[in-house]
Amino acid sequence: MENQKTLLYFTLFFIVYLLWAEWQKDYGPKPETPVAVESTQQNKTSIESGVPVPVTTPDTTNAVQASVVATGQKIKIITDVLDVEIDTRGGDIRKVILRKYAVDAKNQDVKVELLNDKEVNFHIAQSGLVSVNQGTAPTHNDVYSAEQLTYRLAEGVDEIKVPLHWTGKDGVRVTKLYTFHRNDYIINIDHLVAAGHSGWSGSQYMQLFRTEPSSKSESMFIHTYTGGVIYNDEIKYDKIDFDDMKEENLKTEMKDGWLAMIQHYFLAAWIPEKDGKNLYFSGYNAQTGHYKLGTRSSAKKLMPNEHGEFHSRFVAGPKLQYKLGEIEPGLELTVDYGVLTIIAKPLFWLLNQFHSIFGNWGWAIIFLTITVKGLFYKLSEMSYKSMAKMRKVAPRMKLMKEQFGDDRQAMSKAMMEMYKREKINPMGGCLPILVQIPVFISLYWVLLESVEMRHAPFALWITNLSVKDPYFILPALMGISMYVQQKLNPAPIDPVQQKIFQYMPIAFTAMFAFFPSGLVLYWVVNNLLSITQQYVITKNIEKEK
Predict the structure, then answer these.
(1) What pLDDT is stored for residue 311 in this prediction?
(2) Residue among 95, 90, 130, 127 at smallest CA distance from 114
(3) Among 314, 333, 362, residue at a domain's last position
(4) Residues 419 and 521 in one domain
(5) Taking a C-beta distance cutoff of 8 angstroms, is the pair 176, 155 a contact?
(6) Contact in structure between 232 and 255 (CB atoms under 8 Å)
(7) pLDDT band at 22 (very low <50, low <70, confident <90, very high)
(8) 518 and 457 in a common domain
(9) Dihedral through CA 436, CA 470, CA 16, CA 425, nearest 10?
(10) What digits encode the pLDDT tens for the residues 4-13?
């Protein structure tokens, strides 16, 4: 009954994999932190420009000493996809509401609030300038003047520009310019510096502040990463989670790259201007529970009365895979498929193609399942033929067990002779199942991670593929289909295995009752296709002499 054992091993492997993924979340090894930038001097010379800038990262602690961050006037900007609030103190982005994404599929009026400066789920974006000369660069603690307090993207207009102005010592003037675009989650932020009569030198920094999420709606089997990420061409994709920030301050210099705070379906990311060395840093404020992840650019030097510019982009929105890849290399990796990304990406591409045809993610899942099943048809056929032959000789195996009793050696010898005589390969069902394990796990993450399927309806009672079936009908169908599959397989001789297989459909039904209905839909369709294929093959084998 090797095929039964293989199915049992596959089931146990999948459950262990889910438990391992959850264990990794809390206790797994942390990624190696890049080599820290070390210096014992009070001032450090920038690698590229030679301009002295402070060794320490921008002093952000003053901004969060109290439980509530100090505020100035709020500037409200409304585009077709974003509802944003910018504070005149520092020009911080204090609120971002995603106008096309509702918190709950049943209440479309309440939209996702990705950033906010409330104490619960605190999450803001800051940027500013630092200089060795005090009073000549506006940090996030300085107050800007605004030309107006409300901006709205009008019909026929493709962008909004929001300028903020600041004047410092020695005649230095800085304009912080925000640019919003139609149907775009990218916000351009430019610092335009007019050096005073003494010249100017300094650099730009960008950082994200947030607390850990106050609540987690995911079950123990469904965990997605929430925390920090940094990326560039050398280190690639490196997670800096909340525990990392608590234990040790990141301080590393990298060429180009980007940083982000990500969560299930959404992200907030800073992308500094290219062609420069950037210092990436992190921190944790135990008093407020605020985590910090940021970067500072190389310094620039301006001659008296000269003008200079710093450019950066801020992305706040859904993790739409194809758009993220177009914004910046590597940004699409925030849709985290894990170690099986190489398989998961083609699966998502195929899923997206079916969606473009049917306009419904439920039908896309069904036809993706049919396609995957078709690709593995021959392998599955080998497995089912082996199971059918084992089922055919099951009565003889039962007689052998009664005949040989506890003489396992004689029993094994007789079984091998029978396998040879009947041309049965007892391991024939193992390879097909083993090959499909990574494909199934990859598809599991595709269906779980894709924001495109968030709140997506299917048909009838399934109005949201990203949450559990409200009436548990799909999990029940899945349990029934597993039971039917078992009846088509040869019954295990071992009574312990018989008991385990007897309760497996019940256990899986209970576990999948709380999985997103899109995942359960895949499993139900896959089981129905397997039952059909296995039934036909079994009947044909039984007709043979």
Answers:
(1) 94
(2) 95
(3) 314
(4) yes
(5) no
(6) yes
(7) very low
(8) yes
(9) -40
(10) 444 444 555 5
Q: How far apart are CA 34 and CA 364, in angstroms?
A: 41
- On whether both 415 and 503 belong to a single domain, the answer is yes
112-122, pLDDT tens digit by residue? 999 999 888 89
Domain boundary among 270, 297, 314: 314
Q: How many domains does the chain have?
A: 2
Higher-confidence position of 401 and 154: 154
Structure tokens given for 1: 């009954």
471 plus 374 within the same structural domain:
yes
Counting beta carbons within 10 angstroms of the beta carbon of residue 197, is it exposed (0 to 12), middle (13 to 18) or buried (19 or more)? exposed
DSSP structure string for 137-153? S--TTSBPEES-SEEE-
384 and 307 within one domain: no
Looking at the structure, tell me whether residues 304 and 350 fall in a common domain.
no
List the Cα angle 231/282/340 in 5-degree steps. 35
526/403 same-domain check: yes
**Residue 332 placed within a domain:** no
Structure confidence by residue, pLDDT tens digits, 288-321: 899 999 999 988 999 998 999 999 999 999 999 8
Of residues 427 and 485, which shows the higher confidence score? 485
- Assign 6 to helix, strand or coil: helix
The pLDDT of residue 52 is 33
124 occurs within a structural domain: yes
In a domain, 141, yes or no: yes
Task: Compute how many other C-beta atoms are within 10 angstroms of the C-beta atom of residue 35.
Answer: 9
What is the DSSP code (8-state) at residue 299? P
Q: With bands split at pLDDT 50, 70 and 90, how would you rate the model's confidence at 79?
A: very high
Structural domain including 185 reads 50-212+281-314
pLDDT at 8: 47
Q: State how far the Cα of 113 lies from the Cα of 479, in Å rounded to an integer.
A: 38
Decide if 166 contacts 142 (C-beta within 8 A): yes
Whether residue 76 is found in the same domain as residue 202: yes
Q: Quick one: tokens of 168?
A: 């410092």
- Please state, in angstroms and rounded to a whole number, the distance separating the CA atoms of residues 274 and 278: 9
> What is residue 490's predicted lDDT score, i.e. its pLDDT?
61
What pTM value is reported for the model?
0.79
Name the residue with higher pLDDT: 66 or 452. 452
Yes or no: say if 118 and 43 are a contact pair by the CB < 8 Å rule: no
- From residue 24, give the alpha-carbon distance in Å to each of 223, 262, 263, 292, 439: 10, 18, 17, 23, 21
Residue 309: the pLDDT is 93
How many Cβ atoms from other residues are within 10 Å of residue 94's Cβ?
22
Which segments within 257-334 are labelled E, that is strand?
A: 258-262, 266-272, 277-285, 290-296, 300-302, 307-318
Residue 448, in any domain of the structure: yes
